Protein: Glycosyltransferase family 2 protein
Organism: Arthrobacter burdickii
Amino acid sequence: MPKAPYSRALVIMPAWNEAQTVGNTVRETLAMEQQYDVLVVDDGSTDGTAAEAEAAGATVLRLPFNLGVGGAMRAGFKYAARTGYDAVVQVDADGQHDPRDIERVLRGLENADISIGARFAERGEYRVSGPRKWAMQFLAGVISALARTRLTDVTSGFRAANTRAIAQYLDHYPAEYLGDTIDSLVVAIKSGCRVVQVPVEMRVRQGGTPSHNPTKAAIYLGRSVFALLFALTRRKSGPVHLMGA
């Protein structure tokens, strides 16, 4: 097998009231042959998320109140940079991202700075329909043109980043609640980061209550379209500091 495009990879799991699922997701990840380190960012949970994650073997970073995925990921990127990791991968705490696909997503960094685990790329049976599908196709089309490569799932949170992308995220990563995926990707591309996607399979939520229902998902995608338009007007990041390079 070719040499991995990283020496130390950190799995970052943002988690908000995921006590029912986070422990098993951490255990599954720690059981992988590659032996990843796992950081759970407890995003102001009011249940036993932090305790379950710690009991399962994760390092836990507790936020005093709920910031949303963007704020939690910013904290995770800072932790990764300060502790010397040269690759990170975001994994949902609810178990929808299969830990067996983590290495596949990280391997995408062989040819890019950001690797997206794509749900609509000829693997798995995950499907969407109606307005949500149309919005996702519109976003994918615009961002594919910016990235000059075909991307089919630009709202996927299953993503890996190398040192260049981590440094860019530290300079610019939106902390707005659930506003991270589109805005962060557009600015990273404008700042010179190369993006690829690799196919992954999406599992059903392993337990707990989803933070999204169909109405919230539709509102989120509508907001994402506006976020895209806003992101296109943002400045690119300044010269990034390449840690360890």
